[in-house]
Amino acid sequence: MKKLLFQLDTDAHPAVFDTVVAYDGGADHVIGHGNCTPDNVTPLVEGAIFTRAPKEKKHTALFIGGSDMMAGEALFKAVQENFFADFRVSVMLDSNGSNTTAAAGVAKLMTSGAIAGKKAVILAGTGPVGQRAAVMMAKEGAEITITSREMARAEQACKNIKAGFDVDATPVEATDNDARGKAIEDAQVVFAAGAAGIELLEPHHWQDNANLELIADANATPPLGVGGTEMFDRGEERSGKIIWGAIGFGTLKLAVHRASIEKLFERNDQVFDAEEIFALARDMA
Questions:
Q1: Distance between CA 282 and CA 277 in Å, rounded?
Q2: pTM
Q3: In three state form, how does the secondary structure of 155-183 look?
Q4: I need a surface site. Which of 172, 182, 244, 257 has the fewest CB within 10 A?
Q5: β 241-244/214-217 pair status
Q6: CA 247 from chain center: how many Å?
Q7: Phi and psi of 280, rounded to 5°?
Q8: Burial (CB count <10 Å: 0-12, 13-18, 19+), residue 74
Q9: Cα separation of 229 and 235, whole Å?
C-alpha cells in the first residue's frame, strides 16, 4: 500500500524543501495543500482518517508546515481536534523547520557537554527556532534566558513556551551586541537563533568569557550570529569553548527530518512536536 503524506502548509505554496525531504523520508506520494487554516482544514483531515481500514491507516500521515510557527501551532491543534477513537493518522509539526533545527542544535550541544543545571541564553530567541530550543533545553534541566531587542517580545516568547510546554524562562532586553554580551556573562551555554545575516555577538563578547562552555549558532548566512565562529564548526574548540555551527549540526537536522517522516508511517497515532522530535534527535546525535 502506498505511503501518502499530505503536506498542509499555512503559506500559499507548500515548501519545496519539505516536499523533497518527505520523499527522502520514505513517502511514496506527497500531496501539498497551501493556505491551510483551522477553519478550512477539517475536510482534508476527514479525507485522511475516513478512507483506509484501521490496520491500513498508518500508511497515511499529515505534515504541518509553513513559515509561521504560530499559525502552524493553531493548525496542528485543529487537525488533532478532528481525531477520535481509531479515526486518526500520525501528524508532524515543523513550521519553518523550527523543531528539527532546534532539536539538532541542542542535541549536538549535549554531545559536547552537560546542560543540566547550567544557565543557557537563547540570543534573539523570540522566533520559532529560539523558542523550541528554549523548551528543549529547559526540559533537560537548564536555566533559560531569552533575549530580544524588545522586552515585550522576550516576555511574550516566555509566555508562549510556558503556555505550550509548561517551562519557565527569563526575558531579557538586549538591544545591541554589547547588551547581548552582558546577558551571557554568567552563562555556560549560548544558542544564537537570530535572523539570517545578523551578527549578535562579536568575538570579544564570548572569547574572553571564562564561564562559557558551549555555543551553537543557527545562522548559516554571513555575517554569522556569533562572530569568530564558522558555520561548519562541528564541536570545534575555540578559545576554550565548544562550537557548533549551522552547517555543523545541519546534517543532523536533515537526518532527523527524514527519520521523523519515516516514523510517521509506523503507526497511525503518533504526534511529532518539539519533545518527540528532540527525543529522536538525541538518539541520532
A1: 9
A2: 0.95
A3: HHHHHHHHHHHCCCCEEEECCCHHHHHHH
A4: 182
A5: parallel
A6: 15
A7: -65, -40
A8: middle
A9: 11
Task: Determine the Cα–Cα distance for residues 136 and 165; give it in Å rounded to an integer.
Answer: 10
Task: Quickly list DSSP for 174-213.
Answer: --SHHHHHHHTTT-SEEEE---TT---B-HHHHHT-SS--
CA distance 153 to 25: 35
Q: Please, what are the domains in the chain? A: 4-97+252-284 (3.40.50.10280), 101-249 (3.40.50.720)
Q: Give the pLDDT confidence of 207-260 residue by residue, as tens digits.
A: 999 999 999 999 999 999 999 999 999 999 999 999 999 999 999 999 999 999
> CA 79, CA 73: separation in Å to the nearest integer?
10
- Which grid cell sits at 174? 538586549
The 10s digit of each residue's pLDDT in 116-174 is 999 999 999 999 999 999 999 999 999 999 999 999 999 999 999 999 999 999 999 99
